[in-house]
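Reopening this one. Same input as before:
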Amino acid sequence: MEFAKFVNENFGIGKGDTVYVISDMLSLAKECRNRGERIKPDDVIDELKRLVGEEGNLLFPTFNWDFCKGVMFDYNSTPSKTGSLSKAALNREEFIRTRHPLYSFAVWGRNTQDFYNIDVPNSFGKGTIFEMLDSLDAKALVIGIPALSGLTYIHHIEAMVGVPYRYEKSFTGDYKDREGNVRQATYTMYVRDLDMDPRHINGFEPLEKIMLDKGIIRQINFGECPISSMTVKDTFEPVKDDILNNDSKNMYTYNHL
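Same output, byte for byte:
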């Protein structure tokens, strides 16, 4: 597959890497068709597995926010709302879903059980999967969309540093676990303060430019499909600096109360 070779040669993703995949499959599929190659989500997953090997890890976001609306989270059947690649990964037997009802991942690889064992109420910050990505020097692979527009790790940084336009909000509801047991559970989300009306700026475009200029983000087009990669923890300091020293102006506009 040309795509897998492209990723390996241009971003150095290979054996032993932990890769957090953020994607728009339509953009990639269109480019592959232009090259005379038809691919399905499972083809992409197979090739990425081959690249990182069993000593690496693959994570696909399988986020779903219906728990916030009072809908029961069913570990085995609540669908992903974050794209066709994540849906495909969630349906594969070798992938295991992590346990957070809002921000779960479909995971495969060496540290699958470690990821599954994480069960903290908070979505971001200490003890979460996003913190574990730091410890594993995880790379983000962003396919078909701007480099930072789908990087949920930014909200982890916001939670770690603290921002005026978000606060921790608790949600309680029914939770059906992997074994089918139902319990009442409370999880939290670092939500936007609607009075401050924070709105991100074009997929964090100003911040993305800073990171591209500093070499934190590497971006190369696969034909007409943009592909980006970065070590996720390398984004921490630029985001922190923007929060503390620039009122987050490279990320958001918001009302200062």
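So the earlier flakiness isn't reproducible anymore. For the record, The chain has nine helices and twelve strands.
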